[in-house]
């Protein structure tokens, strides 16, 4: 599961234009730090926009300004000097649904795919986290939109990152769960009092397996009173095991 260069460049364009949400931007910056070619594209685009930014008088922008700017960026030929020495970019055919016009849910899918790529050594793949997660799961809501990514390290620790603007009422808690087996039933990995990246420390469980279920639910403050999921499911998904 990886991003091609067209996807990455399109997300980079939105990043420079300030069109990513706060969570999406934070996740994209993780990709940016590990991909020199992507970093070069962001720098080149910023340099190209700087004269416009410095010289243009302050005016109210027309409603279609962003659409026209995106179209102009998409029409610009790729710069041959955009990649650092020693970095080769394999061109890909233009896509009919170029990412700046793609739905927000698709962009979140692509950023989630990039995070998985970082976790399992795929994607842009220059650095690998240590230790590596045993499995990674993308948690989706009922509409099929990714909400969070869980990386389970199989040592009682798991990491969660949100890839959507999940709403957490002040009197509620987000609780993460996994299903090691039907006999065991759902087991809590931990609770969160805010929507932010976090390390969850759960009980001592067997090593996570491929297709193991993970989910997050909305529970009363402090967590489920029964030790089992009681609130609405915010997102669920199945584990992809690291090769």
TrEMBL record:
Coiled coil: none annotated. Signal peptide: none annotated. Residues 111-233 form the Anti-sigma K factor RskA C-terminal domain. Pfam families: RskA_C. Residues 80-101 are annotated as: Disordered. InterPro entries: Anti-sigma-K/W_factor (IPR051474), RskA_C (IPR018764). PANTHER family: ANTI-SIGMA-K FACTOR RSKA. This is Anti-sigma K factor RskA C-terminal domain-containing protein. It comes from Thioclava sediminum.
